[in-house]
Structure formats: C-alpha cells, structure tokens
Amino acid sequence: MFTKILIANRGEIACRVIKTARRMGIKTVAVYSDADAGALHVQMADEAVAIGPAPSAQSYLVADRIVQACLDTGAQAVHPGYGFLSEKAAFCEALKAAGIAFIGPDVHAIGAMGDKIESKKLAKAAGVSTVPGYLGVIKDDEEAVTIARDIGYPVMIKASAGGGGKGMRVAWDDAQTREGFRSASNEARSSFADDRVFIEKYVTEPRHIEIQVMADAHGNCVYLGERECSIQRRHQKVIEEAPSPFLDEATRKAMGEQAVALAQAVQYRSAGTVEFIVDKDRNFYFLEMNTRLQVEHPVTEMITGLDLVELMIHVAAGEELPLTQADVTLTGWALEARVYAEEPTRNFLPSIGRVTRYRPPAEGAGAGGHEAGVVRVDTGIHEGGEISMFYDPMIAKLITYGPDRATAISAMGDALDRFQIRGVGHNISFLAALVESRRFGEGRLTTNFIAEEFPDGFHGRELPPEALTRLVAIAASIHRRRVERDATISGQMAGHHRVVPSHWVVRVGRDNHAVEVDVADDGRDDDGHDVILGGRTLAVRSADWETGQTLWTGTVDGHALAVQVDGTGIGYRLFHGGAELEVQVLTARAAEFAALMPVKAKPDMSKFLLSPMPGLLVNVAVAVGDEVKAGQELAVVEAMKMENILRAEADGTVKKIAAEKGSSLAVDQIIIEFE
C-alpha cells in the first residue's frame, strides 16, 4: 500500500480524497496555483507544492509540473480527481515513465473511452445499445447541416473530447446547427485542445441515468447501481440521486450488465461511470464512459456503504476488489445538490468574489433536527475564501440520505434552508425550489425539467399560503424581540412593564399583514411569542435564536422550520424553501406612509449591450453603423470556460463599440451602444 499520494486537483474533490487518505493512514500532497495559495485543500494536506499561475493551462493542466512535484515529495501515486488531467492518457503515460502509480484506469482504457467517437464504436462492438448518429470527423458547419438533416432534427452536437456540458449544443434546425457547430468547436478547442465534434440523434423526454462500475487488474468488475442525473442546466448536472425513481429491477440489471461488458472490453480497472440516455419507455442508449471518479459519486457511496476513493486506492496498489456482484446491496435513498457561485435570477450567470459568510448545515445522522436523515457536505471552500474566475464555480456538494426518497428530499430541503453563503451569488434558493416542487417529488424527471418548470427563468419560488403565513409570524416575532432588546438597553423596560407595542404591520413586498404579537402563554418571551394573524393565533417558538443571529430555527404551531435572516436596516431579508422575501415590520401609521412611497424606476439601459458576467470578450460580431435585428448575435463572452452568446433584444443601429475583442469585462460593463 502507498504511504504518500499526491492529489492532482483542487477544491472539494481534493479535500474529499485527502479525507479518505488520512483515514487510511496515507500522507497527502496538494498542488496549487497562485490563486489557490490559501485554499482549503492546501491547508488540509500534509504537504503542498506550488505549480504555477492561476490559469489552469499554466498550472493544473501542466503534467510535467505534477510529475516533478511527485518526484520532489516522494509521492508514490497520484489521484487525479475529476476534470483537469484525470482523463489524459499522456499524463498517465508520464506518470508510468516516472515510476508513479496512477489511481485510475490504465492508458489503454483512457484512450479508448476518452474519445467519444471511438468509444461509441467500441460500445457498439461490445453489444451496448447506442444512439443513432454520425461518428466521423465533421469538417465545417455546412457538412454539419447535411449530417443533421440525414439524422433528422432535433440533433445533439457534442465535443469528442468533451465533458461537464462544455462543447455541447442541441439544434432544432439548420441555423442552430451552424451556430452550434461553431460554438461547440470553439469551446472544445478552448477547454480540451481538441475541436472535433460529432452529431447524434437527440432523444426527446430523455432521462440521464448512469451506472457506476468498479474493476480491478485481476479481471473482476462489478456495477454499484445507478444514479439519476436528469436535473440539468445547460447540460451540467444540478441534482443527482441514487437509485433512480424510474428504473425497474430488470432495466437496472440490463444496464449494469452492459456497463460491465464495456468495461471488460477495454480491460478497465478502477472506478468508472457508463452514462446512458433513457427514453420514456425505458429504452436506454450509451452516451459515454467517464474514466474517472464522478462529481456525484457520494450518492452511490451513501446507498452502498462503500468508499469509492478507498477502493480506487486499493485497486491502484494492485489489490483485488474485496466484493463480488452478489455482495452489492442498495439500501435507502440519497440526493446530491451542487451548490454553485452563480446568479439564478440573472440566467445563472457565474459569480466571483470573496465568501464573507460560509456556514454549511451540520453533518451526520439527525443533523439539523431532521431525525431520519443524514447530511454530508463535500466542499473546498472556507469562510473568507475566494471564488475565482479561473475555475469551475462550484462551492460545495450537499448530500442527504434517508431510508426512502421522501425522507432524503425532506432532509435536503431542511439542509438547504440552513446553508448560509454570503459575499457571492449562489443557487441555494433555486435548489430548494427544485426539491420542493411537486413534479420532483413525484419523480417525473427529464433532462428538460428545468427548462419546462422555469420557462421564463428563475425568479424565486412563490410560497404556498400556509408557508407564507408562518414566515410572516416569524418576522413579527423576531422584530418584537429586537424591539424589546432595544427597549431594555435604553431603560424603557423593567420587569413586566412594557412600552413595546403589540400591534404591527408586516409588509412583504407591497402587501400588508396586520399582526398582534404578545408573550407566550407561559408568560415567558425568551423562547418566542404568540402571533395573532387574520384572527388565528400562531405559537412561534425558538429557544436558541437571539437578535442578530442569521439563522432562526424553531417551530410555528409545532411545525419545525429553519429560516435565514439578514437585517436590511429597517427590515429583514428572509430565505426559506426557495423563496427570498424582503420584509418590513412597521407600526400601523408607518405602514400607511410606506404604502404611499413611489417605486424607484430602473434606468433605461435598452440602448446598451452590457456584459452579464465577468469574463473575456471572445468576439464582437458587429461594427459601428451596422443595422442589427432582434435575435442577431452581437458578441461572445467566455466565463468559467463556457461561451455565452449575447444577442440583440430589438432592432437597432450600432453607434459605438465600447469594448474590444480580448478585453476582460466586469459585470454590467458596456460592450456596445446603439442609436
């Protein structure tokens, strides 16, 4: 067994590998770029080696520096995590030449499965069901159109060396095929140094379901059940779960056996994932094989009780798998939600900056007051850390487990309510809205779920009336406690003689809710209040909350709740269940005046094209004096390794180009001005 390994990665996956290595008694070496000098994975490792500037092409993707770091520290093996060099055969060869073990498959398997075109040919030869498509090299956009017409629309354009949603487009007509081919090729060249793309039939009402396999060098291979990864945005997975609520045992077995057959066909070893697209009739088709650990591997670990990283390390050390297919059991249900630094209400644009507050929910069984659930948080962020424009914007992975799907979902909703992040935009409210939706609860999932549920984008969840009533009552209670504290400090209260008013108006947006707030029935108000709202008395209790705390936990009429509370001067911002409410608690007279206040009009920016995110201006498609039509491409901005095409919202004439190609843009920076 190894005594020291190097993790050729960063962020949450580096931290996750370090945890297992530490438990196994193995020393760890972290590598880091200039941007990651203070990162959590650097702090956790036994040793750390600087490998270059912030851009990954000059640090994490430079294989020679990783190999040298191994030689300098005496690391006997490398765990690549996911992304970066994890599926680069040349990196595996360089390690082998230096006498360093690779904690992953061998060069042959990486090469065979790393090319999506060749992997589909191999899968077909191995008897694996494949999607109809064209697997040859496509020379230009016109040939792409010809091929798409032959296959029949809609089609999927995909980078041969792609992954993580990069270099992928769906096209429904010739124009989208031309544009998609160009964008997919550009993204593939930028992210993978390989601009080849292929085209295949796009399956409608699709579900993305993958099989986890684990194999050793002694001919043993097992499948560890499936993961449903259908909740996606821009082909990037958002929520994953295991097992799938859609598969029956016969389909699960057939998919698992085909995944094993493919792995054995390429003499695979280590952890790998065979991804399938599944239609509404449970017909399944091979998509690709990822020759690495997947981001969503924790849900498989939760339902199997296995540590996949530990198994990978044992296999890389030459040991046999300690289990057979008969030993694999799936128990309970697990969900994983990917917490990203992004702005869901601004079309999920990435957010960068310093994390000024990072308070994840408590981990473990019964964490956060949810007795039947288990909570796990995999992260590479700490409070005060920074989300950089150079890397993927993932903050953490939140994983919950329960004996059944309903419990796992309930535990996820509660954990999201308790997950506090400030300083950067994040998608926690969006994730909460997803898991709280009726359709998700019923398991009616497809890869089109988000587009269908939020056709006009995400603008926050509208709470059911009862949930809104509870939040109004909580707002009234916390405000009463705040006023009581202020009165005590100023000497206006003594014993039970109070000058604090009981009648208030809670304003949610421009809606008024008249309330009466009084001490609890037992005469004590240090654990809550009785709130009368609409003729109904609600018992609001929170034994632990104090004024100024940012997380309120307690009960309303016995219903347990966790609500995040930010002070906003004379009001509060409440976060709960996917909703973000702006609340003011006013006297009746103040509420009358507030209702008369005019709403500030937003400035008219219709004559400008603004950068919706920080990023690189890759291209400007127009010139001064050009007449443009609504929907026409104006510019392309690259951020977090993804190209974003900016289009005209209306007809107009270009008056001024305010930013040049190659410029680094800030959020809302002017790119083009129109007459």
Protein architecture, described:
With 675 residues, the chain is α+β, with helices and mostly antiparallel strands. It folds into 6 domains: 4-103, Rossmann fold, CATH 3.40.50; 132-201, Dna Ligase, domain 1, CATH 3.30.1490.20; 207-331, D-amino Acid Aminotransferase, Chain A, domain 1, CATH 3.30.470; 332-460, D-amino Acid Aminotransferase, Chain A, domain 1 (2-Layer Sandwich), CATH 3.30.470; 465-596, Glycoprotein, Type 4 Pilin (2-Layer Sandwich), CATH 3.30.700.30; 608-674, OB fold (Dihydrolipoamide Acetyltransferase, E2P), CATH 2.40.50. Helix content is 28%, strand content 33%. It has 17 helices and 40 strands. The strands form 9 sheets. Strands 14-13-10-11-12-15-23-21-20 form a 9-stranded antiparallel sheet. Strand 29 (551-556) and strand 30 form a beta hairpin. Helix 4 runs antiparallel to helix 5 and helix 7 crosses helix 8 (174-192). It is globular. The protein starts with a strand and ends with a strand.
Q: What does the secondary structure layout of this molecule look like, with pairings?
A:
Blueprint: E1 4-7, H1 11-23, E2 27-33, H2 40-44, E3 47-52, H3 63-73, E4 77-79, H4 89-97, E5 101-102, H5 107-114, H6 116-125, E6 133-134, H7 141-151, E7 155-163, E8 166-171, H8 174-192, E9 197-201, E10 207-215, E11 221-233, E12 236-242, H9 249-265, E13 270-278, E14 284-290, H10 297-304, H11 308-316, E15 333-340, E16 342-343, E17 349-350, E18 353-354, E19 357-359, E20 364-365, E21 374-379, E22 386-387, E23 394-402, H12 405-418, E24 420-422, H13 428-436, H14 438-442, H15 449-453, H16 465-489, E25 503-508, E26 511-519, E27 528-533, E28 536-541, E29 551-556, E30 559-568, E31 571-576, E32 579-586, H17 588-596, E33 608-610, E34 615-620, E35 627-628, E36 633-639, E37 642-647, E38 652-657, E39 664-665, E40 670-674
Parallel strand pairs: 1-2, 1-4, 2-3, 4-5
Antiparallel strand pairs: 6-9, 7-8, 7-9, 10-11, 10-13, 11-12, 12-15, 13-14, 15-23, 16-17, 18-22, 19-24, 20-21, 21-23, 25-26, 25-32, 26-27, 27-28, 28-29, 29-30, 30-31, 31-32, 33-40, 34-36, 34-39, 35-38, 36-37, 38-40
Helix pairs in contact: 4-5, 7-8, 12-13
